[in-house]
Design brief:
Structural class of chain A: mainly beta
Largest sheet of chain A: 6 strands, mixed
Mean pLDDT of chain A: 92
Low-confidence stretches of chain B: none
Order of helices and strands of chain B: EEEEEEEEEEE
Helix content of chain A: under 10%
Number of helices of chain A: 0
Number of strands of chain B: 11
Shape of chain B: globular
Order of helices and strands of chain A: EEEEEEEEEEEE
Oligomer: heterodimer
Largest interface: A-B, 22 and 25 residues
Distance between the termini of chain A: 41 Å
Helix content of chain B: under 10%
Shape of chain A: globular
Chain lengths: 114, 113
């Protein structure tokens, strides 16, 4: 089946620190991979995505590279800010009729201290 | 509309009562999804609509849960005889026919007391 495993949180960092949130997946077929972010009191927002192997998704200083050989899609940011405090969800989707749903990891809560 | 709208935003209900949760997707989005997010946990898939048919209902936890969609518009998730374990945030999302770029609503927080 299809599943996503994320690094367990919570993660607490100081401002300007380097961030990595690990994400690995298992999938039948060739999935598209996503990172969603949920800021306090808000709905989920798409942060970035990659649709095929070796693609790099990027947005707001965050990056993730689709690694088929290691079945991973780790999220990175070189210098985090207090405003990056949120819950981050890794997700995959395998295309096909009846299989359009996103499968999410359990989420990683990130807190950035000033 | 401009975004996915869910109502109510909060609902407190007594155990055993029925509740209806509503989702208004983005206009023109053919696909609609319901997820559940329990406190401190990830998102749990419930059901997926393509148009007004539901090709994947595999996530509905029991026969107390049902959902319908009118055309390519509003969807209603109904929970009958609510139980305390139904307490969660219920999230709706919609996407275009390509299936890319889900847009989520802000959710309905359901509390069963």
């Amino acid at each position: 089946g299809n599943s996503v495993t994320q690094m367990e949180g919570p993660v607490t960092l100081s401002e300007e620190a380097f961030l990595t949130i690990n994400c690995t997946y298992t999938a039948t077929g060739y999935p598209s991979l996503f990172w969603y972010v949920q800021y306090p009191g808000e709905g989920l927002q798409l942060l970035l995505k990659a649709t095929k192997a070796d693609d790099k998704g990027s947005n707001k200083g965050f990056e993730a590279t689709y690694r088929k050989e290691t079945t991973s899609f780790h999220l990175e940011k070189g210098s985090v800010q207090v405003s990056d405090s949120a819950v981050y969800f890794c997700a995959l989707r395998v295309q096909g009729w009846g299989a359009q749903k996103l499968v999410f990891g359990q989420g990683t809560r990130l807190t950035i201290n000033p | 509309g401009a975004g996915v709208s869910q109502s109510p935003s909060n609902k407190v209900t007594e155990k055993g009562k029925d509740v209806e949760l509503r989702c208004d997707p983005i206009s023109g989005h053919t696909a609609l999804y319901w997820y559940r997010q329990r406190l401190g946990q990830g998102l749990e898939f419930l059901i997926y609509f393509q148009g007004n048919s539901a090709p994947d209902k595999s996530g509905l936890p029991s026969d107390r849960f049902s959902a319908e969609r009118t055309g390519e518009s509003v969807s209603t998730l109904t929970i009958q005889r609510t139980q305390q374990e139904d307490s969660a945030v219920y999230l709706c999302a919609s996407s275009s026919s390509t299936g890319d770029g889900y847009t989520f609503g802000s959710g309905t927080r359901l509390t069963v007391v």
